[in-house]
Amino acid sequence: MPTYTPIDFLLNRKQPFGASGDEEDPAQTSSTGADLMTLLVSAAAAWLSWQCNTKRGEDTGTKVVYALFAFFFGWFYLIYYFISGKNNCAKAIGAPV
After folding, report:
1. By CB count within 10 A, which of 20, 80, 89, 95 is most buried?
2. Cβ of 63: how many Cβ atoms within 10 Å?
3. pTM of the entire structure?
4. Angle 47-41-43 (CA atoms, 0-180°, nearest 5)?
């Protein structure tokens, strides 16, 4: 199963198949559902990053850099967030974990 990133979605990249490059391998073409899921996960990761860093009192430039990182590595950021970031974010505002 091919892996799609937000950049592939935005640039609508598809892998060429065959010598001419005109034909496409059905396994390499993206589906609308996979693209939408990737975009939603990336947007959710960027939003969580922004919210947590706002609660921590980070400046806007730092929040933008972290939100971009979270957007482009959405699944990895969400895993990181739920393992360690969720607790760190709650501690930043003094909420019970």
Report:
1. 89
2. 18
3. 0.61
4. 35
